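ok trying this again, last paste got cut off
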Amino acid sequence: MPFSVYQRPIFAVSICVALLTQQASALVKLNDGTDRIYVTGSVGVTQDSNIFASSGGGSDYVYSGGLAVEYTRKAGWIAVNASVGVDISQFDRFRGENFQNPRFAAEFTKQTGRTTGALTLSAQRQSRADAALNTRNTSWNYNAGLNVHYPIIERYSLSGGLGYSLIKYVDNPAFVDLASYSANINLFYILSNERDLFAGYRFRFSNSSRNTQDTDQAFNVGLSGRIIPRVNGTVSVGYQVRTPSDGVGGASYGSTTASAAVSYAFNKKTTLTGKVAKDFSTTASDTSIDVTTAGLDFQYAYSAKITFGANTGYGNNRFLGRGGLIPGTGVHREDTSFDWGARVSYVYSQHLQTNLSYSYMKNWSNAGSSDFERSSWSLGASSRW
């Protein structure tokens, strides 16, 4: 007897969970345990009411699976953490959106000696719904970064970094590839054993496949460590300027910039985390946007096996320049969003974890096709050996 569209997700996940509880590849230890290899598998099903993040976007069931191999080494001056994997998703109705996305990441960390830091490398193929363009896109994302920290004297230290990223879109010539180069430096001053004061500068240059460029310069000050009693994290605020160039010149954009990530522990079981970010970004259509996001995440560990969570968020995107105008209106597009979600995870054993989640998002926009709602629920399981 064939399964209905509502029975298929339950059947698929039940089979996959049963497979994951069977004997799997064992953890490999080399060189007296300093080198380790892990294997992780995951399966899941999602019901998404709006897979295109657009007004009138279609709904679908999405069945997903993933496999990853991770290598870690903790010996000598340099620690290594590297992984390679693949994520696969099958859509029930919109089968043209099916994907198989490989990914790779590596991190080399130096945590001893006077100078410490990390080198990170990553490459992944990503398929997602783009709320800025109200459609789905697929891209190759490449990233490289180098960050170092050096203590100057007793109370002063310097940190700095170099970064590179490339977004290269697949099978859609209308989207614009974007390469970005960045450099930053921060001076830290130790206020006490619990907190540091810092001031910094960031330079970022972006170049698109349409031969347009954006130059960003930002100055910021902030506090790191214990912000106030029982609240720990990092908070910074500053001012930044974006200077665009499309071959004929363009007006510069000035705006505040901010970044914050703090947490408050009510007790050993309950934690509240807050994040705020404000920065310039560039869409796949080569339009500059001023992005503001804020969010709260609540987590409660009911027991060693069961964890509950809830989150809520706010976002505002102001589209800038000529590319940000709504066609035929002379008005710049502006989106405001609100989202919330809830989740529960259950650790069945050392090698199996299951999770159930729900999320809802509402996006208000003065561009009709960008005014939409989106909700989804997901059920999944993962196993690590």
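PB: full thing came through this time. The chain has one domain: 75-82+101-369.
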